[in-house]
C-alpha cells in the first residue's frame, strides 16, 4: 500500500500477525478475489503481470499458478513475506518486492498487464496524476490494466476507502488509455456487516463509524460483506495516439 491518504491507517500493524490478522483486514479473504480469478480464467492477463499493492499475495499466487510471469509489490514487509511463503509452499515463482509503488518508476521494469485490486482508491485524489504517470512509465505500449476501485455510484457510504466515480476514472485515464469497459463487479471481504463498523471511517479516519447504513449490505454464503465496485479494463495507446485530454 502507498503512503499518502493511507498514512493514518496502520497497514503494517494490521499485517503483523500474518494470516492471523485476517479478521482485521477486510481484503484478506484467504484466496484471490473471485472477479480477478474470473478475468484470469477468461485469458484477461498476459505477458509479464504486475500486481500493484499485492497485500498477502493471493491474487498474484493465482495468476502465477496459471503459468503467468508475475511481479508483486507492496510496501508492507510482513505482507510480502507472507506472499513469499505462500509461493514457496505452492511451488510457484513470483517476484515479490517490498517497495512504495511510486519508487517503481526508476526500476526500469516494464509490464504487459497491471492488476490494481483495491489499490487506486487508497491514494488521495491529488496523487492520481502521479499514479497515471507511474503506469505510463511501467507499461509497454498496448499493456492492459485491470483496476478495481470502490465507487461513488455503486458503493454505499460505509467505512472504507475513498470512493471514485466513473467520470473521474475517465478523466484520469482517458487521454492515454483506451478504456474498454467500466463495469460493476463484486469485491468480497472477510468481515460480516457488524464488524464493518469497526473499520476506519473514510470521512474522518476514525474507528467506530456509523452503522445505520449497513443493514442492506450484500453478504456471501459465509455472511461476509460483498461490495459492488468498479472494474475498469483499459489498454495503453501507442505514444503517437495519446492526447492531453480524455477521449
Structure, briefly:
By secondary structure, this protein is α/β, with parallel strands linked by helices.
Describe what this molecule looks like in 3D.
The chain is an alpha/beta fold and 247 residues long. The chain is built from seven helices and seven strands. The protein has helices at residues 11-15, 34-41, 58-65, 77-89, 128-138, 166-173, 193-196; strands spanning 48-52, 69-74, 95-98, 111-117, 139-149, 177-188, 226-236. Mean pLDDT is 85; it is low at 1-8 and 18-23.
N-to-C SSE series? HHEHEHEEHEHEHE
Largest sheet: 7 strands, mixed
Structural class: alpha/beta
Q: How confident overall, as mean pLDDT?
A: 85
Cα Rg: 17 Å
Approximate strand percentage: 15-25%
Strand order of the largest sheet: 3-2-1-4-5-7-6
* Unreliable runs: 1-8, 18-23
Task: Give the CA-CA distance, first to last residue.
Answer: 29 Å
Rough outline: globular
> How many H/I helices?
7
Helix content percent band: 10-25%
Please describe the topology of this protein.
Layout: H1 11-15, H2 34-41, E1 48-52, H3 58-65, E2 69-74, H4 77-89, E3 95-98, E4 111-117, H5 128-138, E5 139-149, H6 166-173, E6 177-188, H7 193-196, E7 226-236
Parallel strand pairs: 1-2, 1-4, 2-3, 4-5
Antiparallel strand pairs: 5-7, 6-7
Amino acid at each position: 500500500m502507498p503512503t499518502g491518504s493511507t498514512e493514518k491507517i496502520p497497514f503494517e500493524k494490521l499485517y503483523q500477525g500474518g494470516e492471523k490478522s485476517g479478521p482485521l483486514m477486510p481484503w484478506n479473504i484467504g484466496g484471490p478475489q473471485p472477479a480477478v480469478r474470473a478475468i484470469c480464467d477468461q485469458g484477461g492477463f498476459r505477458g509479464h503481470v504486475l500486481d500493484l499493492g499485492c497485500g498477502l499475495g493471493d491474487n498474484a499466487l493465482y495468476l502465477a499458478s496459471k503459468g503467468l510471469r508475475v511481479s508483486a509489490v507492496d510496501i508492507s514487509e510482513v505482507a510480502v513475506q507472507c506472499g513469499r511463503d505462500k509461493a514457496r509452499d505452492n511451488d510457484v515463482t513470483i517476484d515479490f518486492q517490498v517497495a512504495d509503488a511510486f519508487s517503481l518508476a526508476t526500476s526500469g521494469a516494464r509490464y504487459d498487464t497491471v492488476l490494481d485490486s483495491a489499490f487506486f482508491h487508497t491514494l488521495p485524489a491529488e496523487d492520481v496524476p502521479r499514479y497515471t504517470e507511474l503506469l505510463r512509465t511501467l507499461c509497454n505500449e498496448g499493456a492492459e490494466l485491470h483496476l478495481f476501485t470502490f465507487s461513488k455510484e455503486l458503493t454505499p457510504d460505509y467505512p472504507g476507502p475513498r470512493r471514485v466515480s466513473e467520470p473521474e476514472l475517465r478523466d484520469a485515464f482517458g487521454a492515454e488509455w483506451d478504456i474498454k469497459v467500466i463495469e460493476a463487479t463484486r469485491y468480497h471481504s472477510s468481515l460480516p456487516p457488524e464488524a464493518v463498523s469497526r473499520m476506519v471511517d473514510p470521512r474522518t479516519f476514525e474507528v467506530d463509524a456509523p452503522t445505520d447504513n449497513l443493514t442492506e449490505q450484500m453478504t456471501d454464503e459465509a455472511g461476509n460483506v460483498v461490495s459492488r465496485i468498479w472494474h475498469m479494463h483499459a489498454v495503453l495507446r501507442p505514444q503517437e495516439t495519446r492526447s492531453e485530454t480524455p477521449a
